[in-house]
Design a protein that fits this description.
This protein is α/β, with parallel strands linked by helices. The protein has a single domain, classed as Rossmann fold (3-Layer(aba) Sandwich). The chain is built from 8 helices and 8 strands. The strands form 2 sheets. Strands 3-2-1-6-7-8 form a 6-stranded parallel beta sheet, with helices on both faces. A two-stranded antiparallel ribbon has the order 4-5. β6, α5 and β7 form a beta-alpha-beta unit.
């Protein structure tokens, strides 16, 4: 990643997309490390995290993460997830945050030198191009090392630089000992993480 110490940086994290990419690579993100890493690379002016939340549930598994991020330096952008029924009759939830991300990137881009977009969604290619026309460099963080690849080829080509999430495991991943109990739970205590 090419960063300059005086770069005014802004992070835009598509929460669902980053979660899926990290899960497909078999690790969890340590968001404190992520924030610390980018604070070292420039002047971090804002770190946004976008996610949809399921309303009217007694417990939401993402709520503790959202609360922690909100108290620890991230600007949270949330909206209620919409409920729908799939073809098999199962209840599902959908909460696309693309529009919110695009609006915030465009609004903040005049005050940034470098935007870091944590998403592989190809719908962001036009957004990246528009921000680049304003003179802002754009780094996209996602992965092509998963099956299937999580990063759109068009988005990767448009970005000034692409960082594969797999290459950041040692920098922003939780230590293996933090991942071991969950791995053992999910695999019945058999095998190696």
């Amino acid at each position: 990643m090419t960063f300059y110490p005086t770069d005014r940086l802004a992070l835009f994290i598509d929460g669902a997309n980053l979660y899926s990419a990290a899960k497909s690579l078999g690790f969890d993100i340590d968001y404190k490390k992520l924030l610390d890493e980018f604070r070292k690379r420039g002047v971090l002016i804002r770190a946004y995290y976008y996610t949809a939340l399921v309303e009217d549930q007694e417990y939401s598994p993402i709520r503790p993460l959202v609360d922690w991020l909100d108290y620890n330096g991230f600007t949270m952008v949330t909206k209620p997830a919409r409920e729908y029924t799939d073809r098999e009759g199962r209840k599902r939830f959908r909460g696309d945050m693309d529009l919110e991300i695009a609006v915030d990137v465009m609004e903040l881009s005049p005050r940034c030198d470098h935007v870091v977009l944590f998403s592989g969604d190809g719908d962001f290619r036009c957004l990246v191009e528009a921000v680049q026309r304003k003179g802002v460099r754009v780094t996209v963080v996602s992965t092509v090392k998963s099956q299937p690849p999580m990063a759109s080829d068009d988005l990767r080509r448009q970005a000034d630089s692409f960082v594969d999430l797999a290459d950041l495991v040692d920098i922003i991943g939780r230590p293996a000992r933090d991942r071991l109990p969950r791995f053992l739970q999910e695999n019945g205590g058999i095998g190696e993480p």
